[in-house]
Amino acid sequence: MTNVRSDEIRVSEIFGPTIQGEGVLIGLPTVFVRSGGCDYRCSWCDSLHAVESSYRHEWHAMSTEAVWQEIVRLSRGEAVMVSLSGGNPAIQPFGDLIGRGHRNGYRFALETQGSIAREWFAELDVLVLSPKPPSSGMETDWQAFDVCLRMAAGKPQTVLKFVVFDEADYAYARAAAARHPHLPVYLQPGNHTPPPSDDKDAPIDLEGVMERMRWLVDATIEDGWFEARVLPQLHVLIWGNKRGV
Ligand SMILES: C[S@@+](CC[C@H](N)C(=O)[O-])C[C@H]1O[C@@H](n2cnc3c(N)ncnc32)[C@H](O)[C@@H]1O
Ligand SMILES: Nc1nc2[nH]cc(C(=O)O)c2c(=O)[nH]1
Ligand code: SF4
Ligand SMILES: [Mg+2]
C-alpha cells in the first residue's frame, strides 16, 4: 500500500454485482466497494481483511475515476445500486464518486457504524447506520452518531441495522431504536466466523446463526417489538464467509 493522496480512496475490494445480503436492500443486485481501514475493532467483525493493518498490502489507493471505471466495468454500464462498505467507508473521500455515479443513474448506499460523519452523507440514497452492541466490545459515542444523522439532513433513506448475538445486544438495540423512533429497524443474528477466506468451503457456524435467528424472532415477537424486521445475512446462508460475494 503506497501513500494515499487526500483525494484517493483506499480500497480493499470492489466486487459484484451480487445480491445485497443484508437489511433494507436485501436481494437487490449491488456492486460493493469495500474500503480499507476502520476506527473500530469489533470482536466478531466478519471483514477483518478490510480492517486490520496486516492486510494493508492488499489495499489500493485508487482515484475516484479508477473506482468509477471499475464499477462501470463490473455492472456492464447498467446503473445498479452501489454499496459503500468497509472497514469504515466514512473515512474515505466518496463524495465525488457519488456525484459521478448519480449523473449516470447509479444509486449509492453506505454501511457505517456511525462514528464518523461526512458532508457527503446528504448525497447518499440510502444510509445504513449500524451502531455496535456490547458483544462487539466497542463503546458507542452517541454524540458522534447524532452528527451522522445531522449530516444526512434527512435526505437519504436512513435505517438502523443491529447485529444481535445475545440478550444484552437485544436490549442495546431496543434502547438505541427508542432514541430514534422514526428510523426503520433491521435486526440480524451475529455470525461467529473464522478469518475471511477465498475458500468456497470456508466453514461458518450455520447452526449457530440459525439458532440465533430463531431466538431473535421469538424475542421480538414475545416483546411485542412489531416495528423491527428480523433478517439473516442472506449471502452468508448462500456462500458462507466467502470473500467477494
Ligand atoms: C463489515 S461491516 C462494514 C461497515 C461498517 N464498518 C459497519 O460496521 O457498519 C458491514 C456490516 O456487517 C455487519 N457485521 C460484521 N460482522 C458481522 C458478524 N460477525 N455477524 C453479523 N453481522 C456482521 C456489521 O455490523 C455491518 O452492519
Ligand atoms: N452480498 C453481500 N451483502 C452484504 N451486505 C453487507 C455486506 C458488507 O460486508 O458490508 C455484504 C457483503 O459483503 N456481501
Ligand atoms: S465497525 Fe464494521 S468494519 Fe469496523 S470492525 Fe466493526 S464490523 Fe468490522
Ligand atoms: Mg459483510
UniProtKB/TrEMBL annotation:
Cofactor note: Binds 1 S-adenosyl-L-methionine per subunit.
Gene Ontology molecular function, alphabetical: 4 iron, 4 sulfur cluster binding; carbon-nitrogen lyase activity; magnesium ion binding; S-adenosyl-L-methionine binding
Residues bound to Mg(2+): 47
Gene: queE
Assembly description: Homodimer.
Binding positions (S-adenosyl-L-methionine): 44-46, 87, 130-132
Residues noted as binding substrate in the record, renumbered to the chain: 19-21, 34, 85
Keywords annotated in UniProt: 4Fe-4S, Iron, Iron-sulfur, Lyase, Magnesium, Metal-binding, Plasmid, Queuosine biosynthesis, S-adenosyl-L-methionine
Top-level EC class: lyase
Organism for this UniProt entry: Sinorhizobium medicae (strain WSM419) (Ensifer medicae)
Positions contributing to [4Fe-4S] cluster binding: 38, 42, 45
All residue ranges annotated as the Radical SAM core domain in the record: 25-241
Family designation: Belongs to the radical SAM superfamily. 7-carboxy-7-deazaguanine synthase family.
PROSITE patterns per record: RADICAL_SAM (PS51918)
Needed cofactors: S-adenosyl-L-methionine; [4Fe-4S] cluster; Mg(2+)
Annotated protein name in UniProt: 7-carboxy-7-deazaguanine synthase
Keyword hit for Ion transport: no
EC number in record: 4.3.99.3
Pfam families: Radical_SAM
